[in-house]
Structure formats: structure tokens, C-alpha cells
Design a protein that fits this description.
The chain contains four helices and two strands; from the N terminus they run H-E-H-H-H-E. The protein is mainly alpha-helical. It has two domains: 1-66; 71-138, no CATH class. The termini are far apart.
Length: 139
Amino acid sequence: MLLFAVFFAAIVLCAGSLIWTARFFLQREAQIRADWQNAEQDWRAREKRLTDELLRYAHVPPLAVEQQRVAKIPDPDVTPFLSDIDDAMRADDIKEDVEQLHPEAVGMTPDEVKALWPMEWRAAEANWNAVREPLRILN
């Protein structure tokens, strides 16, 4: 019974030391990460000061960088004009997407692929249209 108690105490002691060590290393990692971020901010501020100083030395006013928030939404007013060549390229791109799903479509015409796999064709066409949809920029 005494041996069991000693064994249990050793296990608890090992588990406690393992938890304490993990906690110590996690705290140290967080401290190193915070120090690195502070150093990076200091480097950026020093670089900006140096750039401004060099611009002033060259009699150029310092640059003021402004960031804008831009949202892009679908623009229903714009209808893209597709020539016959653009339409053929579109069909070929869609056919290549269907070929990824059905390798036996290699060597077929787009019309044959569209007739054999209409659902996959519609999905690839919807994806192609969504990627190339004209966008309106909102400020």
C-alpha cells in the first residue's frame, strides 16, 4: 500500500512539473512574440522617420499615405461584350473545368461535353461567370 502511495505521489509530481514547464514555455513564447511585434513596430517607425528625413533633406515634403476602404459589388449596369473569339475561349475554359471532373471529355468539342454532362457544365459556367462578373467600386 505504501508503494502504491509513493508511486501515485511520483505520478502527481511528474504531471505537476510537466504542467508547470508547459505553462512556463507558453508564457515565454508569448513574451517573445510580444517583444518581436514591439521591435517590428519600432523598425517601421524608424524607417518612416528616416524616409521623411531624407525627403526633407531633398526638399520634398513628406508623403502622407491614406488608406481607403473599398468595397466591390456586382455591377448590373455593365454587360460585358463578348466577341466570337471571347465566346469560344469561354466555352473552352468551361470545358477544361468539366474535364477535371470527367477525363474522358478530353478531345471532345464543347457542345459534346455540354450534351453529355449538362449539370457539370452549368456549375462550371456559373463559376466562370461569377469569377468574371463586372464589379462596381464603392468608397
